[in-house]
Design goal:
Elements (H helix, E strand, L loop, with lengths): L6 E2 L6 E2 L4 E3 L5 E3 H4 L13 H25 L11 E5 L2 E8 L4 E6 L9 E3 L13 H11 L8 E6 L5 E9 L7 E7 L3 H50 L3 H16 L3 E3 L5 E3 L1
Antiparallel strand pairs: 1-2, 3-4, 5-6, 6-7, 7-8, 9-10, 10-11, 12-13
Bound molecules: zinc ion (ZN).
The site of zinc ion has 7 residues, from helix 1.
Length: about 270
């Protein structure tokens, strides 16, 4: 044991020294090359072997799906800017892009060049707490995620003896056992760039929330209308001696299609499957 002893990486088997490996929460070692296939912001001491493997298996596909989501959003009136925006945060240069329809964003730093660019979700952007099977706690956490008033992204500013800013840190809380929070910090006298970046993420989160609520309300209105239409169709079928079952079945199919977002409403309120 010790600094110079080599240990085998649990994923690729390569024997590596202390400087080229990390220890997982489940006590195995992971080499730096394999670590680069996980989420850059994941802390290995919080990550189990299975969780690390899961990141390796899914990160690439998630990034590809996120990339594809911009094409899907092109015909809609939504905030989905394909290109990354850049902020200079002291010595760190951060690149960020967001799709508010999807409710997800990506953060990239120059120092992450050998990592997959990870995708993060607004509905998980809240203070980390340990997972619980308690239903009340789950509801509480859900209402936290849906709280439009909360500015979860915060900037901490450190000042020197002369009162001037010397260090800034942005913290994005994240409800993931391996990540818990996304922190970017730098020695800088410019807190405004940090604040501007935080404001941007907070406002994108609010945009996603209002969109999600709008979608839920629209779906509810469609379901009520469908219920009325179905009841009318059932009555009509009964009067005419036609199949009531078919009318009900059609109503259920329409209800499912509304949930899946496959229905649009005409100018006169009639529902059509897309
Ligand atoms: Zn390895």
């Amino acid at each position: 044991m010790g600094l110079f002893s080599k240990e085998a990486c649990t994923f690729c088997g390569t024997e590596v020294g202390a400087l080229k490996r990390s220890k997982l929460a489940t006590k195995e070692f992971i080499c730096n090359d394999c670590k680069r296939k996980t989420n850059y912001f994941a802390r290995m001491s919080w990550t189990t072997k299975d969780q690390a493997q899961n990141m390796m298996d899914t990160l690439g596909q998630e990034a590809a799906d996120f990339e594809a989501s911009f094409d899907a959003a092109q015909n809609r009136f939504e905030s989905a800017e394909h290109s990354f925006n850049t902020w200079d945060l002291g010595s760190k240069r951060v690149h960020y892009r967001c799709n508010t329809r999807l409710g997800a964003f990506q953060i990239n730093l120059n120092e992450m060049s050998r990592y997959e660019i990870p995708v993060f979700w607004f509905d998980r952007m809240m203070p980390y707490e340990f997972q619980s099977d308690n239903a009340n706690l789950s509801d509480m956490r859900r209402s936290k995620a849906m709280n439009a008033g909360a500015n979860y992204v915060e900037v901490d500013v450190t000042k020197g003896d002369d009162g001037k800013v010397i260090h800034c840190m942005i913290t994005i809380p994240y409800d993931d056992a391996c990540i818990r929070e996304i922190k970017i910090e730098s020695d800088t006298d410019d807190a405004s760039a940090f604040q501007d970046f935080a404001d941007r993420i907070n406002s994108d989160r609010r945009a996603w929330l209002s969109k999600a609520k709008f979608d839920a309300e629209r779906k509810n209105r469609m379901q009520v209308r469908n219920l009325g239409d179905t009841a009318a169709a059932v009555l009509k079928a009964a009067v005419k001696g036609e199949s009531v079952e078919d009318a009900v079945k059609e109503g259920i199919e329409m209800a499912n299609a509304i949930e899946e977002g496959k229905v649009k409403q005409s100018f006169f309120g009639k529902l059509f499957k897309k």
